[in-house]
Amino acid sequence: MNVKFRLILMNFMQYAVWGAWLISLGGYLGDSLRFDGLQIGSFFATMGIASVFMPAIAGIVADRWIPAQKVLGICHLTAALLLLAAAPQTDYAQLYPLMLLSVMFYMPTIAISNSVAYNALSRAGMDSVKAFPPIRVWGTVGFICAMVGVDLLGFTHTSGQLYLSSGIGFALGVYAFTLPGCAVTRDPEKKSWIDGLGLRAFSLFRQRKMAIFFIFSMLLGMSLQITNAFANSYLTTYFGRMPEYQGTFGVEHANILISLSQLSEALCILLIPFFMKRFGIKKVMLISMVAWVLRFGLLGAGNPGSGVWMLVLSMVVYGVAFDFFNISGSLFVEQETNSAIRSSAQGVFMIMTNGFGAIIGSYAAGAVVDACRWPLSWFVFSGYALVVAVAFMLSFKHDH
User: Fold this and answer.
1) Of the CATH numbers 1.20.1250.20, 1.20.120.340, 1.10.3720.10, 3.50.30.40, which one belongs to the domain with range 3-183+197-395?
2) Is residue 229 scored above 80 in pLDDT?
3) Cα-based torsion angle of the residue sequence 270, 273, 278, 282 in order, rounded to the nearest 10 degrees
């Protein structure tokens, strides 16, 4: 079977697993289970907690002992089983730990799937910067299909979304074992314990350029989970309680409206090779940061009625906000590291963005929402993104 098609199928399922619950979980927790802002934020912080250490551990294992495609399969099968156990739970004390454990095994698969794809493309003699984005775009297509499926099946405010995600995860876990094999580094020479555990990737922090890049990856990562956690509930609950907006498309089918974000993401991925080669990582990340300012600001200014165009525009700029940071950042790490620590380096990138960034961002966002309420909270988030953009522009130096 064609290598590109196999990687496309992997990426489609990889993100369909996530898309089945990531955007709609906040609405289910808030509207159906009646959890407050901090509790909802804690569920999205699980991705940060898991990303602090699990991607690095999985990357080390994939670099040193078990081929990456097998690590990918093991993680997906375990995550799917835990999600299946979490689905029927309605009490916070029972649901939260099962979701946390499931996410701990899912989050490493994002970086590992990238490593599997880069390895397969390299073995096939392809340029990853050119070949990977058109493959990765199918991950976004999978995410969108799962989101729309959840909406049309009526799972947006039920645990059905978790059952659906679990089923896709089981299928991908089995499929992963059939993917092209990845090499592991079994050097018989005696090395330090740091090399033995594959922790050499953390030495990248000694390089000023990489240290600043990772720090701002964390600061920008704080923005990633905000709309995931609250956008659905904002549209269905905040506007849904207002008589003038009841029955509008944005309220009744919030998941489909939000899926425009992922459609934009799919299209923007195709722009990355041009922008990376033409402008370099600094300008690409600055574009992403400005897009985050607009993403939050437009959500705060818009509404499902006469202001729906601002909501739609917010969804459109999300593609730039996410891709020009997340995908370009992954490619930048790929280019700046050698093959011996590549999986581990991708794990470090995940730690900073979906780890520390997501933990701080999720809890801080929950506190802001409880304190400021809507729509003021969106303007607070927008102001934060603007400050980060200015600081990055002044501090990050990179010769393109």
Assistant:
1) 1.20.1250.20
2) yes
3) 100
Q: pLDDT grade, residue 190 (50/70/90)?
A: very low
For 390, the enclosing helix (H) or strand (E) is helix 376-395
pTM comes to: 0.79
Taking each continuous run of H as one helix and of E as one strand, the counts in the chain are 18, 0
Structure confidence at residue 5 as a pLDDT band (50, 70, 90): very high
Average pLDDT of span 202-220: 88
Per-residue pLDDT at 135: 92
Q: Domain residue spans in the chain?
A: 3-183+197-395
Burial degree of 241 (CB within 10 A; 0-12, 13-18, 19+): exposed
The rounded Cα 180 to chain-centroid distance in angstroms is 24
- Give the 3-state secondary structure of 180-214: CCCCCCCCCCCCCHHHHCCHHHHHHHHCHHHHHHH
Q: How far apart are CA 173 and CA 78, in angstroms?
A: 8
